[in-house]
Amino acid sequence: MTKARLLRLSVVLVSIFMILLIIVYWDNVGTAHFYLHTSFSRPHSPGAIPGITAGEDWEALPDVDEFLAKLLSSNLKQNSSIPRKTEQLLVQGSSKPAVSNLEENVRGYDWSTHNDRNSLDQEKLQIERQRILQEFCANSSFTFPTKERSFDDIPNYELNHLIVDDRHGIIYCYVPKVACTNWKRVMIVLSESLLDQGVPYRNPLDIPREHVHNTSTHLTFNKFWRRYGKFSRHLMKIKLKKYTKFLFVRDPFVRLISAFRSKFELENEEFYRRFAIPMLKLYSNHTNLPTSVSEAFGAGLKVTFSDFIQYLLDPRTEKMAPFNEHWRQVYRLCHPCQIDYDFIGKLETLDEDAAYLLQLLKVDRLLRFPPSYRNRTASSWEDNWFAKIPLAWRQQLYKLYEADFVLFGYPKPENLLKD
Questions:
Q1: Residue pLDDT, tens place only, 72-85
Q2: Are 95 and 87 in contact (CB under 8 A)?
Q3: Name one GO cellular component term (predicted).
């Protein structure tokens, strides 16, 4: 009798264990159709699809990582294209959709072609960008905060900019003020993470802006802990090894100007209350400020670019809270010395880089990247914006963002750093 009970108990325990494994596997895959469209990740041979294959170097992974990797890799359908029915569903829609968002109506889109720039040798460009990044990450004489951390040392809340698309094996680290709204839209279309009347969005520009920046819309690394518990770091490492990882960057000073224009020259209630009021009190000696941004603008009370720069340089700022993501350094958002990015795009070459990336990901037949804004903040504006900023402040500001300049190959703005 006792043996029979033990046998039944064993069967129950084994069944529970198998169910848990299936849940972990299914939760990771997301759908019955898991497709990897990546074919250019550096650690793999040309034309190979990143994945876990015989002979791949997994010795560095702990046992639990290897177990999970094999579990999550089994029975994955590594096809090179989405089924025709799904593909046809996604490519439908107008090539120039009506734009209802106020900000995008004001800015307008540049639908013109850029054939004159299509001659860029994208492959060599990527090799050079990655070479620069790897060189300075490995250079012990070039230091900046958090450089020497390992991936395990990065707290979960600092991984909230890494968006994962399990359907296509893609990880995108978004950088605010670097076309991130439209790249998030692309990720939503690819991952089918948002539906419109029960149907996945087909055209990136059809997705309302408020949904694009809703944190619940995207699967990000910092959500892994709630989903996978103690296995979260192991799964992150597996995905980082298997998936294609990309980010887009921008001249750091131009990005700051763009952030200032977007958040302080336009009426933004949240940024007025959280940032503008303290800046106006600390650096412009204003008291009894209006509680709403519309009242403040009506009274002519606006943060100046000088106030903004003082705020960035003030040591009290970081003591109170980390930089807001719109002006936080890229190395703090995306951890480029801890994560081996396969593709580094730049806003300065956005149209060419975006087209090339979608082609390499084999998703260019599914969608097109939304066009650039006509009046995007230009690098040529730097001299005018910084003309009234004291030289010492400019030099301090460069030191604050030096790592972003160096790691991503942006020239030092000598004209702003000398008399």
A1: 554 344 433 333 33
A2: no
A3: Golgi membrane
Taking the CB of residue 22, how many other CB atoms lie within 10 A of it? 11
Residue 100 has pLDDT above 70, yes or no: no
* pLDDT tens-place string over residues 19-32: 455 444 444 444 33
CA–CA gap between residue 203 and residue 189 (Å, rounded): 7
| Predicted pLDDT at 15 | 59
Specify which of 1-10, 57-66, 109-118 reaches the highest per-range mean pLDDT.
Answer: 1-10
Q: Locate tokens 């010395």: which residue?
A: 337
